[in-house]
Design a protein that fits this description.
This protein has one domain: Orthogonal Bundle (Hypothetical protein af1432). The protein is globular. It has about 170 residues and is an all-alpha fold. It is built from nine helices and no strands. Bound molecules: fe (ii) ion (2 copies). The site of one fe (ii) ion has 5 residues, from loops.
Amino acid sequence: MKNIEYIKEDLKKSIGEKLYIHSINVMNTAVDLASYYNISTEKAKIAGLLHDSGKLLNQNVGNLEHAVYGSKIVANKYEINDTDVINAILYHTTGRENMTMLDKIIYIADKIEPNRKYDGVELLRELAYSNIDKAIIKSLESTFEYLKSKNIEIDSKSITTYEFLKNNIR
Ligand SMILES: [Fe+2]
Ligand SMILES: [Fe+2]
């Protein structure tokens, strides 16, 4: 893996200041959740920092594609070969069946980082610590509602994630 300071500098140049600040916020939120759930804070740090590395400036990367680009960038450009980290980035917009705790943390940290302001975000912030599966279900439900209101098609991967979580919730 390339040096973390190099990665941060390069990321800032690649995605721009605004998205870089969001990335740092997601990183910090992810580290906090990782320590709360007793998983590797190092993996949470790298995955949080780089989750949007596929949103290259001046390139119109679609919402679903940026996760795929990001997973390639971290592997090729930043020489990160940790599959847990790569998968958390790859699945951060849609989730997947059988999400790992790291996948869940990156998914929800993206939605609740301190700069996020929308109706219901406070509930998600609480749920992220009390029942992270429920937090993801709630978040997916609002995403579905939003997409329906805009007449945008819901991707099948998100629906699979939603159904999987619904069927396996404790
Ligand atoms: Fe993203
Ligand atoms: Fe993000």
